[in-house]
Amino acid sequence: MSKIIKDMSIEEYHAHPAISKSGLDLVAKSPRHYWYEYLRPERDEREDKTHFVIGQAFHTLVLEPELFNEQFLVWSGKPRNKKAGKEEYAQAQYEANGRSLLKKSEYEDIKQMAKAVREHPGAMRLLNANGQAESSIFWTDPETGIECRCRPDFLRDDGLIVDLKTAHDASHETFMKSAFTHRYDVQSAFYSEGAKQAGITPMGFAYVVVESKKPLCVSTFSTDQDMMMLGEYRMRKDMATFAACLKRNEWPGYSGMIKPLGIPAWGHKILNEGMEGISA
């Protein structure tokens, strides 16, 4: 069974037990990490969500600016260890009436970032289209029977999925490394699978990336076939691991084997250059 819910709140979405891409990331690290985050009985769900609020506010300001004031309240952000700050924060909580609070400095930062996105021609070619922002997709994986969920930032009517990212460095070379480290290939494959299971033919996956520090440069990227193939492979591997752990109710951590600790490619380059110098 699959479905798209267009008006589900972000809180409801994150509370749903279906596995998400971030859940698969933990499974890939070790099933024990997933168990600790989602399944341990004594887990504390009151953790600080400040960075999530800022990220969601930025996405709303770019993709659904008409909803910003309905979901967020901007307050002065004065230090709360002083009387004036405590009083202003208490008043802001009262006025928020369920909305998320955002410091004025945080709002000014994301407002400038959103402006940079809107002024970027590549970003606007991706985002200036008919589609749905922040829809929640749920489906049952046909290979494992696992319940899955994803929430594309922007699902265009033509089937293109666009994801909005912030980064310290949005240059092509650096973001390509970051994309592999953060498993954006898995995200591309997982979200595309969700769209397909919901009856939408995915037509590709693209990223709009804005730097979080001035001059707030913006880059746009699209996933190529190799990246999608790698994402599909890693996604399937993680799903199979997760299904096996659920079936056995066993959540192992890292391997008990003693593994050799080698050096990365750049280390071999340094070593080879050093050996050449010795032999010269």
Describe the fold and architecture.
The protein has a domain at 2-45 and 108-255: Alpha-Beta Complex (Lambda Exonuclease, Chain A). The strands form three sheets. It has a five-stranded mixed sheet. The chain has a three-stranded antiparallel sheet with strand order 1-5-6, with helices on one face. Strands 2-3 form a two-stranded parallel sheet. It has helices spanning 10-15, 21-29, 31-39, 50-63, 68-71, 83-96, 104-118, 121-127, 172-181, 184-197, 225-248, 265-279, and strands at 2-5, 72-75, 100-103, 131-133, 136-140, 147-150, 154-156, 161-167, 205-211, 218-222. The protein is an alpha+beta fold. The termini are far apart.
Q: Which key phrases capture this entry?
A:
alpha+beta; 16% strand; globular; Lambda Exonuclease, Chain A; three-stranded antiparallel beta sheet; five-stranded mixed beta sheet; 280 residues; 50% helix; 12 helices; single chain; 10 strands
